[in-house]
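Entry
Fold in token form

___
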Amino acid sequence: MGQWGNGAMRKWVRLPVVLVVPLALVAMACGGPAPGPAAGGQLRPSILLVTLDTTRMDAIGRSAVGVETPAFNALAARGRTFSAAYATVPETLPSHSSMMTGVYPAGHGVHENARVLASGTPVLAESLKDAGYQTAAFVSAFVLAKRYGLARGFDVYDDELAPGAAERSAKATTERALAYLAGRSGTAPVFLWVHYFDAHAPYAPPEPFKSRYPADPYRAEVAAMDEQLGRLIEAFDARPTAAGMPPAILVTGDHGEGLGDHGEAQHGALLYQSTMHVPLVLVGPGVAVGEVTTAVSNRRVFHTVRDWAGHPSPESLAVAEPEQEVVIGEAMKPFLQFGWQPQIMTVSGPLKAILSGRVEVYDLEADPREAHDLAPETSVPSPARAVLDEYPVPSLETAAVPPQMDEQARQKLASLGYVGATATPTVRRNAPRAADMTDLLDVIDTASGMFVRGEYQRVIPLLKQILASDPQNLDAAMRLATAYSSTGQDGLALAAFGKAGALAPASRDVRLYLALHYAKGADWPDAVPLLEQVVTESPERLPALEALAVIRERQGRMADAVSLQQRVYRLRSASGGELAQLGLLAMAAQQTPGAIDAFERAQAAQGAAFAHDLELGVLYLSVRRFDDARQALDRVLVAEPRHPMALFKRAQVSVLLNESDRAARIEAARRGADATTRALIANERLFRQ
């Protein structure tokens, strides 16, 4: 593949005729017009789409090994199964993004979890809604939360999880979906998407499945999920439909699970069958019963569902003869996070090719476990070779930059095993292949989780182990420096930052984290030029803005501190406590309108816990909002140490409002005065009147 530069989003200039991934699909994903309603007013079926997270092809269905899945088997018996279906990416969000847009990640731009699908990219639910469908989605994990862009077009998008939780069980999701169906009256067509996450690590199967499969918690999770799938299908089948139109049902996996195959315990790092080969079955009007052995991509969920909704497509899997394609997959996570080789996969007929530094070729009919690489003796068919040569690799400078996330979101993703890199990697010469680094995968996952949880002392040995095997891993180098800094080992921290800087001399990430190291201690002035440079180059970099705001406050530059904090809260939501602190900061900067706004928002967020009624009352008084000042000052508790000041200010308001008890208010202020307010009361001209 050669070396991919940071601007290596190369165009597909040679597209074979049989390749069903034309540039038109990429263009559609970049903002083409949304399709309109079905023509002719023909009857359309209600449609159920079920996506099974982390479900291997050999873990479900009649050919499943070591587990029984009767609900899926029953569905497959009445429909069309695709025994060679493939995910586009071995990660949840990018795989679902392909199913919901019909294009590969090169078209929709989501290459790994915790990214956001562009708002201009047409999605499946928008098309169904335009065609007159009632649309609803019930997803089971935070990784598919609304914030990531798949909720557009859904009347209902249920991603509600228990407080602090990152996922919910198939049973909990099914209960919500069944309640939704029970609440639908009439025969208007429904498009319902249900996502089950159970088979994803950490595996915690419920009973009786835990006891039924005591040695295989992964397959126990699949069995539990299958039970809920059966309940869902039964309820969907029972819905009344227009003129007896039978429902359409499509069930597929978003990716599989390594379970140790090729050295991968989970998924996301490699492109072998265990994580890319997925189940796919469809049942619906006009769908012939049987098995299709032709390789297909599950991105064609998009075209199949739209076909049922009245928008025929040659890429629909529901047609009598589904169009053949060169199936494509990618695994860019190791490239985007560590600078390892990008990985691209093709399946064409029985041959599968993986390009990652070098080409691997496998005959899936003769060697389904991919144990014998045929690359030295077998050439890749020219259509597939063209894909490998021309598939666009994302730019490290853009695709590797994560969206702004609060700490709660980071923790939820970390609990699911999804932890983004600390630093954008650099392009390296002789970058390692992920397939050659499998001994590090578990170490990296464990270290990433520890780092996000703040277990800095414990993570240091693991980070050293990673760097011993992969010395140019900028992410590990940066995390090691940060871990030393966070545990007070400043000398080691500076040495580690120096090594990280040597790996990536132009890295903004290195400058930022070095600045954060300086900012927390006595050397904070050394952080100023670094932070100013980072903010100039990356105006939306949250940690830099937050740290610079604190430093501006230390410098006494209150107006600048307020401006920086306001920029921060435009990029992420602020807690009630943070808004209250912003109010105090704006007061110190003598920015009365900004202070009032911040305190009012803090009060709305905190309710009875709001502790700045005195400040808010004083601010209202200064802008002659006397009624608001009266209400705020009346809320200051007698036990509040600053109650004497509240009494004084309340007396002022009483006089200005000409209240009947103003004299009593003044007397109460005198009786409750402290050393500060006693002099103020004596000199207050309002009280002499």
Summary: DSSP finds 30 helices and 15 strands in the chain. Confidence is low (pLDDT under 50) at residues 1-40. The longest helix spans residues 217-237. The first strand starts at residue 47 and ends at 52.
